[in-house]
Specification:
With 233 residues, this protein is mainly alpha-helical. The chain has eleven helices and four strands, in the order E-E-H-H-H-H-E-H-H-H-H-H-E-H-H. The strands form two sheets. The protein has a two-stranded antiparallel ribbon with strand order 1-2. It is globular. It binds iron/sulfur cluster.
Protein backbone atom coordinates (compact mmCIF):
# COMPACT_ATOMS: atom_id res chain seq x y z
CA UNK A 1 0.00 0.00 0.00
CA UNK A 2 1.32 3.45 -0.84
CA UNK A 3 1.35 6.35 1.58
CA UNK A 4 0.67 10.01 1.03
CA UNK A 5 2.26 12.82 3.06
CA UNK A 6 0.30 15.92 3.89
CA UNK A 7 2.15 18.82 5.54
CA UNK A 8 -0.18 20.72 7.83
CA UNK A 9 1.56 23.51 9.75
CA UNK A 10 4.46 21.80 11.48
CA UNK A 11 2.81 18.42 11.35
CA UNK A 12 3.31 15.76 8.75
CA UNK A 13 0.22 13.63 8.42
CA UNK A 14 0.60 10.28 6.75
CA UNK A 15 -2.31 8.77 4.94
CA UNK A 16 -2.56 5.36 3.43
CA UNK A 17 -4.03 5.85 0.00
CA UNK A 18 -7.24 3.92 0.01
CA UNK A 19 -10.18 3.56 -2.32
CA UNK A 20 -11.03 7.24 -2.03
CA UNK A 21 -12.45 9.42 -4.75
CA UNK A 22 -12.42 13.06 -3.65
CA UNK A 23 -15.21 15.13 -5.28
CA UNK A 24 -13.77 17.03 -8.25
CA UNK A 25 -14.65 20.51 -6.97
CA UNK A 26 -13.13 19.86 -3.52
CA UNK A 27 -9.97 18.55 -5.16
CA UNK A 28 -9.75 21.56 -7.46
CA UNK A 29 -10.18 23.93 -4.49
CA UNK A 30 -7.51 22.05 -2.50
CA UNK A 31 -5.07 22.23 -5.42
CA UNK A 32 -5.78 25.96 -5.78
CA UNK A 33 -5.65 27.04 -2.13
CA UNK A 34 -3.62 24.49 -0.13
CA UNK A 35 -0.58 26.80 -0.21
CA UNK A 36 -2.49 29.30 1.94
CA UNK A 37 -2.15 28.67 5.71
CA UNK A 38 -5.74 29.77 6.39
CA UNK A 39 -7.09 27.15 3.99
CA UNK A 40 -4.69 24.35 4.90
CA UNK A 41 -5.60 25.10 8.53
CA UNK A 42 -9.17 24.06 7.74
CA UNK A 43 -7.94 20.64 6.65
CA UNK A 44 -6.00 20.34 9.91
CA UNK A 45 -9.00 21.57 11.95
CA UNK A 46 -11.34 18.96 10.46
CA UNK A 47 -8.82 16.12 10.66
CA UNK A 48 -8.05 16.96 14.31
CA UNK A 49 -11.74 17.02 15.15
CA UNK A 50 -12.85 13.81 13.45
CA UNK A 51 -9.73 11.78 14.24
CA UNK A 52 -10.70 11.82 17.92
CA UNK A 53 -14.24 10.51 17.31
CA UNK A 54 -14.99 6.81 16.94
CA UNK A 55 -18.64 7.03 15.84
CA UNK A 56 -19.03 7.36 12.05
CA UNK A 57 -22.40 9.08 12.51
CA UNK A 58 -20.90 11.69 14.84
CA UNK A 59 -17.93 12.23 12.51
CA UNK A 60 -20.25 12.86 9.56
CA UNK A 61 -22.33 15.33 11.59
CA UNK A 62 -19.21 17.20 12.79
CA UNK A 63 -18.13 17.71 9.18
CA UNK A 64 -21.65 18.76 8.14
CA UNK A 65 -21.87 21.31 10.95
CA UNK A 66 -18.52 22.84 9.96
CA UNK A 67 -19.57 23.03 6.32
CA UNK A 68 -22.82 24.78 7.24
CA UNK A 69 -20.87 27.28 9.36
CA UNK A 70 -18.40 27.98 6.54
CA UNK A 71 -21.29 28.46 4.10
CA UNK A 72 -23.52 30.57 6.32
CA UNK A 73 -22.01 33.92 5.41
CA UNK A 74 -21.65 33.07 1.71
CA UNK A 75 -25.27 31.94 1.30
CA UNK A 76 -26.49 35.01 3.23
CA UNK A 77 -24.63 37.38 0.86
CA UNK A 78 -27.04 39.82 -0.88
CA UNK A 79 -25.89 38.70 -4.37
CA UNK A 80 -26.57 35.04 -3.59
CA UNK A 81 -29.88 35.96 -1.98
CA UNK A 82 -30.91 37.96 -5.04
CA UNK A 83 -29.62 35.80 -7.88
CA UNK A 84 -29.72 32.20 -6.63
CA UNK A 85 -32.84 30.37 -7.85
CA UNK A 86 -32.23 27.39 -5.51
CA UNK A 87 -35.32 26.50 -3.48
CA UNK A 88 -37.27 23.47 -2.25
CA UNK A 89 -38.81 21.65 -5.20
CA UNK A 90 -36.06 22.63 -7.63
CA UNK A 91 -34.12 19.40 -7.70
CA UNK A 92 -31.86 19.30 -10.78
CA UNK A 93 -28.77 18.92 -8.57
CA UNK A 94 -30.40 15.86 -6.98
CA UNK A 95 -30.20 14.20 -10.42
CA UNK A 96 -26.41 14.50 -10.53
CA UNK A 97 -23.78 12.11 -9.21
CA UNK A 98 -23.09 12.77 -5.51
CA UNK A 99 -19.98 11.38 -3.80
CA UNK A 100 -20.07 10.42 -0.14
CA UNK A 101 -17.58 9.26 2.48
CA UNK A 102 -17.98 5.99 4.30
CA UNK A 103 -19.26 7.92 7.36
CA UNK A 104 -21.91 9.68 5.29
CA UNK A 105 -23.00 6.39 3.72
CA UNK A 106 -23.34 4.96 7.22
CA UNK A 107 -25.47 7.94 8.28
CA UNK A 108 -27.76 7.66 5.24
CA UNK A 109 -28.08 3.90 5.69
CA UNK A 110 -29.04 4.47 9.31
CA UNK A 111 -31.85 6.77 8.15
CA UNK A 112 -33.20 3.98 5.91
CA UNK A 113 -32.96 1.43 8.71
CA UNK A 114 -34.85 3.89 10.94
CA UNK A 115 -37.66 4.10 8.39
CA UNK A 116 -36.92 6.70 5.69
CA UNK A 117 -38.55 5.17 2.61
CA UNK A 118 -36.58 4.91 -0.61
CA UNK A 119 -37.00 3.30 -4.01
CA UNK A 120 -34.71 0.30 -3.64
CA UNK A 121 -35.07 -0.72 -7.26
CA UNK A 122 -33.70 2.66 -8.34
CA UNK A 123 -30.95 2.50 -5.73
CA UNK A 124 -29.82 -0.88 -7.11
CA UNK A 125 -30.00 0.36 -10.70
CA UNK A 126 -27.85 3.40 -9.84
CA UNK A 127 -25.46 1.35 -7.71
CA UNK A 128 -24.87 -1.08 -10.55
CA UNK A 129 -23.89 1.47 -13.18
CA UNK A 130 -20.21 2.20 -13.28
CA UNK A 131 -18.80 4.74 -10.84
CA UNK A 132 -17.71 6.58 -13.98
CA UNK A 133 -19.58 9.89 -14.22
CA UNK A 134 -20.17 9.51 -17.97
CA UNK A 135 -21.92 6.16 -17.47
CA UNK A 136 -24.13 7.57 -14.72
CA UNK A 137 -25.30 10.32 -17.06
CA UNK A 138 -26.39 7.73 -19.63
CA UNK A 139 -29.26 6.84 -17.30
CA UNK A 140 -32.61 8.49 -18.05
CA UNK A 141 -33.24 11.72 -16.09
CA UNK A 142 -35.90 10.12 -13.86
CA UNK A 143 -33.65 7.13 -13.15
CA UNK A 144 -30.92 9.53 -11.99
CA UNK A 145 -33.12 11.00 -9.23
CA UNK A 146 -31.52 10.57 -5.83
CA UNK A 147 -33.40 7.95 -3.82
CA UNK A 148 -33.82 10.50 -1.01
CA UNK A 149 -35.72 12.90 -3.25
CA UNK A 150 -39.47 12.79 -2.56
CA UNK A 151 -42.32 13.44 -4.99
CA UNK A 152 -42.50 17.13 -4.06
CA UNK A 153 -38.81 17.62 -4.89
CA UNK A 154 -37.71 17.81 -1.24
CA UNK A 155 -34.88 15.89 0.42
CA UNK A 156 -36.12 13.33 2.96
CA UNK A 157 -32.78 13.40 4.82
CA UNK A 158 -32.22 17.17 4.62
CA UNK A 159 -30.68 17.55 8.09
CA UNK A 160 -28.28 14.69 7.34
CA UNK A 161 -27.73 15.28 3.61
CA UNK A 162 -24.15 14.74 2.39
CA UNK A 163 -21.47 17.45 2.38
CA UNK A 164 -21.56 17.83 -1.39
CA UNK A 165 -25.31 18.58 -1.30
CA UNK A 166 -24.66 21.29 1.29
CA UNK A 167 -22.43 23.25 -1.08
CA UNK A 168 -24.72 23.05 -4.12
CA UNK A 169 -26.03 26.51 -4.92
CA UNK A 170 -26.09 28.22 -8.30
CA UNK A 171 -26.51 31.75 -9.58
CA UNK A 172 -28.67 32.67 -12.57
CA UNK A 173 -31.35 30.76 -14.40
CA UNK A 174 -32.47 27.43 -12.88
CA UNK A 175 -33.37 26.17 -16.37
CA UNK A 176 -29.67 25.88 -17.16
CA UNK A 177 -29.28 23.25 -14.43
CA UNK A 178 -31.57 20.96 -16.45
CA UNK A 179 -29.01 20.61 -19.24
CA UNK A 180 -27.58 17.18 -18.57
CA UNK A 181 -24.13 15.67 -18.58
CA UNK A 182 -20.85 17.28 -19.46
CA UNK A 183 -22.45 20.16 -21.37
CA UNK A 184 -24.01 21.41 -18.13
CA UNK A 185 -22.97 25.03 -17.56
CA UNK A 186 -23.24 25.32 -13.80
CA UNK A 187 -22.60 28.64 -12.17
CA UNK A 188 -21.89 27.28 -8.74
CA UNK A 189 -21.50 29.63 -5.80
CA UNK A 190 -17.89 29.31 -4.63
CA UNK A 191 -17.72 27.57 -1.24
CA UNK A 192 -13.94 27.28 -0.96
CA UNK A 193 -13.66 26.85 2.82
CA UNK A 194 -16.38 24.22 2.87
CA UNK A 195 -14.59 22.49 -0.03
CA UNK A 196 -11.43 22.25 2.11
CA UNK A 197 -13.50 20.63 4.88
CA UNK A 198 -14.92 18.17 2.34
CA UNK A 199 -11.41 17.40 1.11
CA UNK A 200 -10.31 16.62 4.69
CA UNK A 201 -13.28 14.34 5.33
CA UNK A 202 -12.61 12.35 2.16
CA UNK A 203 -8.91 12.13 3.04
CA UNK A 204 -9.87 10.68 6.42
CA UNK A 205 -12.43 8.27 5.00
CA UNK A 206 -11.40 4.66 4.56
CA UNK A 207 -13.59 4.44 1.47
CA UNK A 208 -15.74 6.72 -0.65
CA UNK A 209 -17.82 6.56 -3.79
CA UNK A 210 -21.13 7.52 -5.32
CA UNK A 211 -24.08 7.78 -2.92
CA UNK A 212 -26.04 4.86 -4.46
CA UNK A 213 -23.01 2.56 -4.62
CA UNK A 214 -21.95 3.27 -1.03
CA UNK A 215 -25.46 3.14 0.48
CA UNK A 216 -26.40 -0.06 -1.38
CA UNK A 217 -23.15 -1.65 -0.20
CA UNK A 218 -23.84 -0.65 3.43
CA UNK A 219 -27.40 -2.01 3.24
CA UNK A 220 -26.06 -5.33 1.96
CA UNK A 221 -23.44 -5.40 4.75
CA UNK A 222 -26.24 -4.91 7.28
CA UNK A 223 -28.23 -7.65 5.51
CA UNK A 224 -31.05 -5.14 5.40
CA UNK A 225 -34.25 -6.81 4.33
CA UNK A 226 -35.28 -5.40 0.98
CA UNK A 227 -38.72 -6.93 1.48
CA UNK A 228 -39.17 -4.97 4.72
CA UNK A 229 -38.31 -1.70 3.03
CA UNK A 230 -40.47 -2.45 -0.04
CA UNK A 231 -43.45 -3.01 2.22
CA UNK A 232 -43.14 0.57 3.43
CA UNK A 233 -43.19 2.11 -0.04
S1 LIG B 1 -29.30 13.52 -0.38
FE1 LIG B 1 -30.96 15.02 -0.53
S2 LIG B 1 -29.99 16.93 -1.24
FE2 LIG B 1 -28.55 15.25 -1.63
S3 LIG B 1 -28.93 14.60 -3.78
FE3 LIG B 1 -30.20 13.30 -2.41
S4 LIG B 1 -32.20 14.33 -2.30
FE4 LIG B 1 -30.72 15.83 -3.08
Amino acid sequence: MTRQKLFVGKKIILFIIRRVKVPAIAKKTFDQFSHLPEFLGIVQFILDKISRVSSPLKRARIVHKSIDEFNEEIFAHPIVQQYSPCKVGCSACCHTQVSVTSDEAELLTQKIVEGVGINLERLELQANVSEETSTFYQLKYDDRACVFLDDSGACTVYEDRPSVCRTNAVLGDAQQCLVSGDSQQLRLVKTSKADMAIYASFLHSKESGSLPFMVFKKLKEKSFSLATQSAKL
